[in-house]
Amino acid sequence: MTELRPGGRGSAPDASFVMSYMAISGGRSTHFGFMGGFGLGQYSPHPPESLHRHSSYEIVYVLDGEFVQHLENGVFRYQAGDACFLNPNVSHREGYESGCTLVFLNLRQEFLENLFAPIPIHAEVEQYAPGAIKSFIQENKSTCTEFKREYLDFAGTASLKQAGSPPAASVLLDQIAAELAAGDTGYAFRIQALLLRMFGELEDPGNYHLSRIRIDSGSEEFILARLLRYMEEHKGRAGRQELSKLLHYNGDYLNRIVKKQLGLSISQLGQRICVQEAKRLLSETDMSVSDVVNELGFVNRTYFYRVFTEQTGVTPGEFRRNRR
Fold first, then answer.
1. What share of the chain is helix, strand, coil (3-state, %, to 5)?
2. pLDDT tens digits, 154-182
3. Taking a C-beta distance cutoff of 8 angstroms, is the pair 292, 281 a contact?
4. 65 close to 93: Cβ distance less than 8 angstroms
5. CB–CB of 82/154 below 8 Å?
């Protein structure tokens, strides 16, 4: 990233928008700095064992490695490209259990309200289409004690993580850092535009699985929410081994969570999601049954027919005729 200012992880400078950077390795923070014009003084780091809160919203983005995030409702693992959006009422701390590089954005309520305010240039064209982030901010109160106890979780899709180039959100963060470092005329407006573009990337379902997590939910609900998003992305055609690789949890452990929360095995859950997608394709498209079988990745047509009939009580052809 561009232009690091020395300092330690602690309270952010008193500004409406602050960007900082942290590298974690060997059980400690090896580098921390504020980007742009901050960091002239030293900032005392939070002890690794203590949870803390900010007076602003905080976005944590994982540039590389694996980040262990400690929140009130558990310990969660984030991979490169993942992000979370915390409101001021969520206590948290950075984990030092693994190596990673992080970017933090601290945004005050008034900054975000101005960011989403209409600009009277073209009344018919919004700068930012209302999405989950704007809703999340609008639904929270303006005083810290009244904030809802929840946060947004952004898990990069399998396609995003398998792409050969860096995620667009990472590129946009680098551009924001460069604008902060240069401080040229109009840099603040350019940063606002880059932030809105980054929000759009995070809200794109092709890039991220977005979940709204309540603090009163436990770590199993968090893992299940992510697992369901990945299963839906793969149309139910993802087994324990693949999910273990994507989520970085043991496959048997994931299966126990699904069994406990839903009363199904991962295989049974996959079949249900797959049949739901098949029903959608048969109802909303003109694809032949053979094309639907191929679209869903079934090699054995007979097996697909058996699974579909067990779930619906009719064959795929009968289902289409009944719908029409």
1. 40, 20, 35
2. 999 888 877 778 899 999 999 999 999 88
3. yes
4. no
5. yes
Looking at residue 52, what DSSP letter applies? B
Question: What domains can be seen in the chain, in order of their start residue?
Answer: 4-217 (2.60.120.280), 225-323 (1.10.10.60)
Element (H, E) at 228: helix 219-233
Of 138-152, 164-178, 269-283, give the lowest mean pLDDT range. Answer: 138-152
User: Which residues are paired to 31 by β-bridges?
Assistant: 23
Distance separating the N- and C-terminal Cα atoms of the chain: 56
Could you give phi then psi for residue 12, rounded to 5 degrees? Answer: -70, 155
DSSP state letter for 145: G
pLDDT digits (tens, 9 = 90+) for 22-67: 999 888 888 888 876 544 334 445 555 678 888 889 999 999 999 9
Q: What angle do CA 63, 67, 167 make, to 5 degrees?
A: 25
**Rounded Cα–Cα distance for residues 21 and 2 (Å):** 10
Q: What is the DSSP letter of 72?
A: T
Cβ–Cβ under 8 Å, residues 224 and 255? no
β-bridge partners, 101: 23, 64
Q: Do residues 188 and 117 lie in contact, with contact meaning Cβ atoms separated by under 8 Å?
A: no
Name the pLDDT band for 249 (thresholds 50, 70, 90).
confident
* pLDDT for residue 239: 85
In 3D, which of 158, 115, 155, 104 has the Cα closest to residue 138? 115
Higher pLDDT, 95 or 146: 95
